[in-house]
Amino acid sequence: MCEKIRIRRVSDYPSARGGLEDILIMENMTNHLLLVQIRVHGYLLDFASIEG
Is it the case that residue 31 has pLDDT exceeding 80? Predict the structure, then answer.
């Protein structure tokens, strides 16, 4: 596994709209940037970059 990027998947996360979502979080270990994919039933719902 690459030491610069850590990938985590959260399956069946309850959504505010009353369903279940899959969330993929890609964390860049060299800076404070997170890339987040949110999928519902396999379809990409949203993709966001978060700098913290």
Answer: yes
Distance CA 19, CA 6 (A): 27
Contact 36, 27 (CB under 8 A): no
How many whole angstroms separate alpha carbon 40 and alpha carbon 5?
Answer: 24
Q: Which two tokens stand for residue 16?
A: 């505010």
Locate the domains of the chain by residue range.
5-51
**Which pLDDT value is given to residue 7?**
82
Question: Who contacts 29 (Cβ-Cβ below 8 Å, separation ≥6)?
Answer: 3, 4, 5, 6
Tell me the pTM: 0.57
